[in-house]
Design brief:
49% helix; Chitinase A, domain 3; Trigger factor, domain 2; 15 helices; 455 residues
Length: 455
């Protein structure tokens, strides 16, 4: 009869020894042999008429070894199901040798497995933490930029004869050449669209008044500056910081000139952008845009506040781990096996992620924050509406319910939505338990905070 013996190896780390006798695995081995005998296709024998001795000689060793190992693993998982130790991941097999498994001498066998146990812990009290709500105020400049963007997005492209405006979109054929404009044999030749205002000021002046098929010759680092130079280098196939590439000469031949005529700020345009709101005046339009911008930055501020809460909980909650077991698990349980050095390097990030998983799971269970099917549907609906809200879909939304029905049958979509809804619930709960100090910051400052910490 099979048995499982548990032995402590160290902090939150145990060994399970699974012992099986001949009676545990031999009957299933003999049954498998008979099944092979009925289905095996061996030249010279009719199906199902292959002698048992030949089947055993040809397939026996593999079947025997497989049944011994399968029985040991089966007994292990029976024990885990019955005892329900709170463990990390799956048990790791220790150095078990299968060389001793001998079909001709069936015997008792034992196999060792290692398990890592989840620790008991108390979550840090967020009411004792210091948090800041970094608020960005929607400015008139932001509103003007968004109005301009919407006017351009909804505008019509025209094709003027000459370049006469920094907003001109210029289709240019870039041809690598020397300083005199002689084409480089085997050099780069690529067409690209560039806003005139992306060129350096001297180049903009040189291009003013130019028409289709006219050209200018320049070095890249004289034609573009800063991030625009990096962008053009990459577009032309260089690395963005390639200093040698930046010094190359190009002949830029004008293929086409374009200019977007901005939309007029009238009632039709307002209601195209905000269908159903019946905006009448430019003031109403700008106020609505300002509200949207403020809402966007408020959401960004909350996300940054949530990041502070995350760091407080991870940094202040004390949790011990079976580190050696988990590092070995990191090495063994990946599509691309990791070395011990790689596991050691990745351990700090991995352990923080694991710590957050334990904390968030505990908070979710204790506060019953699981997402209901109704909440999943509503969240999916809001996501779809946000996506299609960028288009004019009209008033007929009868298709939406059937669309959500299909999404609810997509396991990956449901899992993603569940994680989003439950995480939102968790942070809303945590937010309700703190009293952050409000501080006004610029959009650039808040964005920098988010780039420094992203989870």
């Amino acid at each position: 009869m099979a048995t499982v013996v548990r032995e402590n190896l160290g902090l939150l780390n145990d060994k399970l020894t699974v012992k099986i006798s001949k009676d545990d695995y031999f009957p299933s081995f003999e049954k498998k042999l008979k099944q092979y005998g009925k289905t095996a296709n061996i030249p010279g024998f009719r199906k199902g008429m292959v002698p048992a001795g030949m089947i055993k000689k040809m397939y026996g060793i593999g079947i025997f070894t497989e049944e011994v190992i399968r029985t040991a693993e089966s007994e292990l998982y029976k024990w885990l199901t019955a005892e329900q130790p709170d463990i990390f991941a799956q048990p790791l097999p220790l150095a078990n040798s299968i060389d001793a498994i001998d079909m001709n001498n069936p015997a008792d066998y034992s196999f060792d497995f290692e398990i890592g146990l989840k620790p008991a812990f108390e979550i840090a009290d967020t009411s004792k933490g210091k948090f800041t709500f970094n608020k960005v105020e929607a400015t008139a400049e932001m509103v003007n930029e968004e109005v301009n963007r919407l006017q351009i997005k909804g505008g019509n492209m025209t094709e003027p004869e000459t370049i006469d405006n920094e907003e001109n979109v210029v289709n240019v054929l870039f041809t690598e050449c020397n300083e005199e404009g002689i084409e480089t044999e085997g050099g780069i030749k690529k067409e690209n669209s560039v806003l005139l205002k992306y060129f350096s000021t001297p180049l903009q002046k040189s291009l003013m008044g130019k028409k289709k098929d006219e050209f200018i010759i320049f070095q890249l680092n004289k034609a573009f500056e800063g991030d625009k130079l990096q962008m053009m280098l990459q577009d032309l196939g260089f690395e963005k910081n390639d200093s040698a590439g930046a010094e190359k000469f190009f002949k830029a031949t004008i293929v086409k000139i374009g200019l977007i005529e901005k939309r007029d700020l009238n009632e039709d345009f307002f209601n195209e952008i905000y269908p159903g709101k019946e905006l009448k005046t430019e003031e109403d339009f700008r106020n609505t845009i300002k509200e949207d911008i403020q809402q966007y930055w408020n959401n960004q501020s909350r996300t940054q506040l949530f990041d502070q809460i995350y760091h407080y909980l991870v940094d202040e909650t004390k949790i011990e781990f079976p580190a050696n077991f988990l590092k070995r698990w990191m090495q063994a349980n990946n599509e691309q096996p990791k070395t011990a050095e790689q596991a050691e390097t990745e351990w700090p990030t991995f352990s923080n992620q694991l710590k957050w998983t334990l904390i968030s799971d505990k908070l979710t269970i204790e506060n019953k924050l699981e997402a209901t099917p109704e909440e999943l549907r509503e969240s999916m609906k809001q996501e779809v509406m946000r996506y299609f809200g960028q288009m004019n879909m009209g008033n007929d939304m009868s298709w939406l319910d059937s669309y959500i029905d299909r999404m609810m049958k997509d396991e990956k979509q449901v899992e993603t939505t569940y994680r989003r809804v439950s995480t939102n619930k968790l942070f809303e709960l945590l937010e309700s338990k703190i009293k952050p100090v409000e501080k006004t910051v610029s959009a650039e400052e808040l964005t920098a905070m988010q780039h420094n910490h992203h989870h």
